[in-house]
Amino acid sequence: MTNNDVFKKLRVALMFRDDEIVEILKLADFQISKSELGAFFRKEDHPNYMECGDQVLRNFLNGLVIHLRGTKENPTNPGDVLSKKKTTKPVERKTPSFKAQQRKKMNSDITNVKYKNKKKS
């Protein structure tokens, strides 16, 4: 298993977006751009694929520890940090859903049709 695989699995398991990973890496005093980060998550046969080095993964893990646990001066509970992330509300739709729009368009005056040649079982 390569560093890229570990990085991808952590990203999916913790539901991090690229900008959140960049912020976590900044906590470990490591600067990286979103485009460089995106190269780590590409398939191996992609032309812009880049190997994730030990230094990048190490700094991500150190930043993740700071993100979850906090610093010695300002400790936090990892459960609280993770629960904040999961309790984000889904975006409310301003327009009704497609099914609701279709129901409005349906003519409610039409009744169910009774067929004359109905098979009796």
Q: N- to C-terminal separation?
A: 61 Å
What are the low-pLDDT stretches, counting only 5+ consecutive residues below 50? none
Proportion in helices:
40-55%
Strands, count: 0
The rounded Rg comes to 25 Å
Shape: elongated
Helical/strand content category: mainly alpha
N-to-C order of helices and strands: HHHHHH
Mean pLDDT reading: 84
Strand count, sense and barrel status of the largest sheet are: none
Tally of contiguous helical segments: 6
The total tally of domains equals 1
Strand content: under 5%
Region (Disordered): 71-121
Pfam families: DUF1456 (PF07308)
Q: What would the keywords be for this entry?
A:
YehS-like; mainly alpha; 6 helices; single chain; 121 residues
Describe the protein in words:
Helices cover 50% and strands 0% of the residues. It is mainly alpha-helical. The model has no long low-confidence stretch (mean pLDDT 84). The chain has one domain (1-121). Helix 2 packs across helix 4.
